[in-house]
Amino acid sequence: MILILFLGTLAIGLLAQWHVKRTYARHSRTPVQSGHTGAEAAHAILRQAGIANVSIVEHEELLGDHYDPRHKRLVLSTANYHGTSAAALGVAAHECGHAMQHKQAYAPLQLRMAAVGITSFASQLVMWIPLLGIFSVGLAPKTGLLIMAVGWGIMMLFNLVTLPVEFDASRRAKLVLGKMGFIQRGSESAAVNQVLNAAGWTYVAAFISSLVYFLWHLLPLLTGRQRN
Q1: For 157-168, how does the pLDDT look when each residue is reduced to its tens digit (9 = 90+)?
Q2: In terms of CB atoms within 10 Å, which end of the chain has fewer, N or C?
Q3: Residue 119 has pLDDT above 70, yes or no
């Protein structure tokens, strides 16, 4: 059963990753009439939002784009930093959406930032507790299940909070790109929507996987049945 559970959640994650990479690759070949690069769009969006303390830097990792709220830094992959495609502008604007959330103290983002430390600790727990059980260090099965349920519960809640953060950033990106004239209605707008929607499914997949593992370890505690 645990093998089926592992393979099922792995398949969900891999399918989501395949979908976003396939969609991104297709629309990285969809040029925008405005001719702006992702970096240029990001600079303009941040300036229009009144955000002057966020730096925009280039990174070589493909799809390693992210907003770093700790250092107030917007990181764009080389392809998106210099790219003039719908995919490049969509990703750049999405990361700007996080910067706008940060400036406005968007509650889900604030909660996610506060939970990073405990979530990292929880991820270590769920990795090491099964190994401790394998090597028989005297950990009672019920105790192990409880620790695993708590760990996966924390990760599940973190992934749940991440959903509104990511979907709101994509919503902001779609609106601002059209409003500022970086993309045109029709094929360009549709391409941006597809890229950002595909990216959103990776976070849905992460939430589903963590929820499944949380329930897998919690239910035996509620029913009184123990698993080794």
Answers
A1: 999 999 999 999
A2: C
A3: yes
Q: Is 61 a catalytic residue?
A: no
Residue 228 lies in a domain: no
Catalytic residue among 58, 61, 95, 188: 95
Residue type at 112 in one-letter notation: R
Please indicate, yes or no, if residue 7 is contained in any of the structural domains.
yes
Domain-embedded: residue 121: yes
pLDDT of 135 > 70? The answer is no
CA-CA distance, 144 to 147, in Å (whole number)?
5
The full DSSP string for the chain is -HHHHHHHHHHHHHHHHHHHHHHHHHHTT-B-TT---HHHHHHHHHHHTT--S-EEEEE-STT--EEETTTTEEEEEHHHHH--BHHHHHHHHHHHHHHHHHHTT-HHHHHHHHTHHHHHHHHHHHHHHHHHHHTT-S--HHHHHHHHHHHHHHHHHHHHHHHHHHHHHHHHHHHHHHHTTSS-TTHHHHHHHHHHHHHHHHHHHHHHHHHHHHHHHHHHHHHT----
Q: Residue 142: its pLDDT value, please?
A: 83
What's the number of domains the chain is made of? 1
Type of residue found at 209: S
The per-residue pLDDT for 133 is 63
The letter for the amino acid at 219 is L
pLDDT greater than 90 at residue 134: no
Determine the structural domain holding residue 115 and report its residue range: 2-223
